[in-house]
Write a structure and sequence with these properties.
There is one protein chain. Helix content is about 70%, strand content about 0%. It is mostly helical. A hairpin with a 5-residue loop joins β1 and β2.
Amino acid sequence: MTPATIDSSSKNHEQARDEDAVRSPHLTVDGADEGPFHHIEIAIEHVEQHLHVNHSQNSDVETAEGRQGGEHPHRHLEDDGHYGATSENSWRNVSFFTAIRHLASMAITLFSIVMISAAIFTKQTTATGEKQVPTFLAFLVFWGLLAWLAMMEAGLNCMVGLKPVDASLYSSSHRKTYACTKLAHRGDNLERFIVGRQYLDLMCVFLTSFMVSTIGDSSVLGMPKVVNDIFLASGLAVILITIIFGQLVLVVNAAHSMLDFMNNYCMIAITYAALAVEASGILHSVYLVQMFFSYVTGKPIESNEPPKTAFQKALFWSRVAMSLGILVISFVVAFTALFQNNTTMWSSVPPVVSIIMLIVLIGFTGIMEGLQIALFAVVHLPAEEVEKHALAKHNCDLVFLKHGHLQAFLVGRQICQTIVMFVIARITTVQMREGEGNLFDVSDGLQSFFDTGVLGALMSTIVASLSWRITASSFPMAFLANPLSTFIIRFCLVIEGTGICYSSWLFAAIHQKVVGYERDEVYIGETKDGDEEGSEDIRNKTADSLETTDIQEVSTDEGLGSYRLLSNCKVCFGSILHIVKTFFRAILYYQSTPYLFA
């Protein structure tokens, strides 16, 4: 490295530090450059500078190669639908790296299936070992829940994606699909479907955790203790299986075959079930949040239905009151069980730590939920509004301007979301210890209801999901300008880039071969003479609709490739170093001005 390069990199580093100070002025403390921790701060500065120098050099090299080759410096989408690099040599390296990740993911996935199956049939899970559920029945219920979850995840993608499409185009060829969309697209039913489906989605996650969570020091197939701890005790195996088979596989195939995917009685049942859950009123308290932010922002709540009658208003508010009561009961049950250490949380974790983890995880998953909504809501804002917030603009550029980052972020976010929800399920699901009796001395039947995790799923749906989405739709800039958002985006990109779920693409290809789905263009997207503009308009409207809802409403391209994993790891590590440095600076500031805290 030449002195000129070091000098240039140092200047770039100083400029980046100045920009960080502008974005977060409260993190910079003047007059605290020396003290007992000064040598630690200098060491952190050197590591940060090294990370920045390498990142700047890599960016300069990539830019130069892209300009010489006449192509974009970032990855581009190849003709076969897979992501690759610009040069042939780098493409080969990325292809080899991606192939290794695919093979590793496939091996880990298959091994996880074997481990979970062995735990079920040897009665070392909560359902088979403690609740005495027959092993074969537990096995069937587990995979049935995953199939139901996968249908709901991909079904929402289809339900939203088909809304702008003229139903007469497929009313004869896909009668069951037409029956679903005719019901869900009537009035405000699509919003109701999304609310009800969200609860059913989390309910499946909670029940899956209940069915296959291992008990005690589970050991299967004579595996070493460390292997059992990693795959069974930690829940990695069930989380990985749920993400791949309960979400990604069908989402990949349904993204371009919405008509064929929905054309079955299972989707009809899901449609009615989601609307029934919403109509029951157990989630109506979330509408209070919607009304509150409508009042704060002065934006009226849009509706496709006529104003409510007096009877409808009375019914609505009675369900809101019921939902609030159930929500309070859910909190009381969950926190009482936590304080008494009567949950499925790992026994080595103290109750106080579990409560702190629950609060932190609710905030973390809430920010992830809101961040996704905010990213797509900001698309409709004027560019000047976004540029007023430097950090928000940086986050938007990170997701939208770098090729493949949007899809990678959505997949990584889904992985993180599932992991967090499984941990929340462990924390909030009641499980009485031997000799403890029942919670609040309730009957055995009611205690069995507590043990299912239904109340925990309800609490998570309202507090950790829907409320944050409504907040983000009203205040998108507040989420994008949050310093944690940058770290969360980078972290999601890193998680996806590890390739832990890359086996889902192979399983999706196998599923596609078995079911033989046709692309939607075969039925409604084929352009005829003079009709090309109309078909393009349908695709544009569908894309616009996909941008405004849940994670699965964004169609996922097959073959998400490598997107500079090491670069994002460096940035995440650099962010952690910056937090540590800020902590030491705060200590120095406290020591230099003790009178402020006297």
